[in-house]
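Table 4 source record.
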Amino acid sequence: MNETADQSANKTVFGDPTPLGLLGLAIGCAALTPLGFGYALTPAGFRTAAVWALLFGTGCQMLAGLMSLVNKNVLGGTLFTAFSFMWVINAWALNSIASGFVPDPAIGLTVDATLLVIFSVLTYGFGFFSSLLFFFLLDIDLLFLAKVAKAFIPAAAAFLNLMIGCLTVGMGLIALWLAFGLLINPVAGRTIFCIGKPLFTPGKK
């Protein structure tokens, strides 16, 4: 009876939604890339990026997060769901800038610092699953570190903006690779897109 209950508790309701969330993230990063490198800095450019960020960054990751939580994948579900709300803020900020309103930098700084702490801890957690997942989260950590550093080292703003742009591209590329690995490797029956072995081993309870 207990074995049957355990099997029922571990049964997934949905197929793995992780690739959906990763593809949405990659598309959102692609929309931000021209802005990150100083192109399309016009109201039309900001508003266009905002729509892509809202639909794919928010939509795909919200679905992936909620489906993961239903499947009892707490770590993945928490990451995707939290990230989806961040993409709502990205879309709002882009649309606001297009309208001539600049979000308050002090509030942005405290939130970015908090997100840096959150994602730093989650980076360690994902190291128990895959080395590439670990470096994917590490990319996000460095991105938020660069955003926080801009507030304290204004003289390095140009370099840090370039760093943020490169890290955004890197985040999108790693997200694509992970999504392709999860989608294509099982179909091909072999590893075409390697996602790496876990970096850490869980201790015994």
